[in-house]
Amino acid sequence: MDELAKAKNYALRILKYRPRTKKEILERLKKKKYSPDLIERVMQEMSEAGLVNDKEFVKFWVNWRREVNPRSKNFISWELKEKGIPEELIEEGLEGISKEDDFGQAEQLAKKQFVRLKNIAPEKAKRRLYGYLQRRGFSQEIIFEVISRLFSL
What we know:
Elements: H1 3-15, H2 22-31, H3 36-48, H4 54-68, H5 73-82, H6 87-94, H7 99-116, H8 122-135, H9 140-151
């Protein structure tokens, strides 16, 4: 099997698990020590075939982070930047998420977690909830509001 076929097979193998950004595939191919010319050819062919599309990746990632593994809008934005997505695509992908959506998401996550913390002292439970929501990228303002609502019930 020639190098081009090996590189393509490798790229396809990493795409089997979830969509990837151009940057992610480029970095993985570079780690495997493929030549820059070969990497460029593989990327071009994969882009033309529609297998690597950053715009579609943004849609996938935002949906996954809002529905399956919830995170805040800011956290998702940071992740997409880390994955090499251009700022315009990030803004476009996140434009439908408002501060109220983030608040609702945080409240929903906190309620689930709150049930698990019901037998713990209130101050300790508040600290744990704060850390839980903070690790998911929610702002202090949202976290304090969610916690105060939960503990005023």
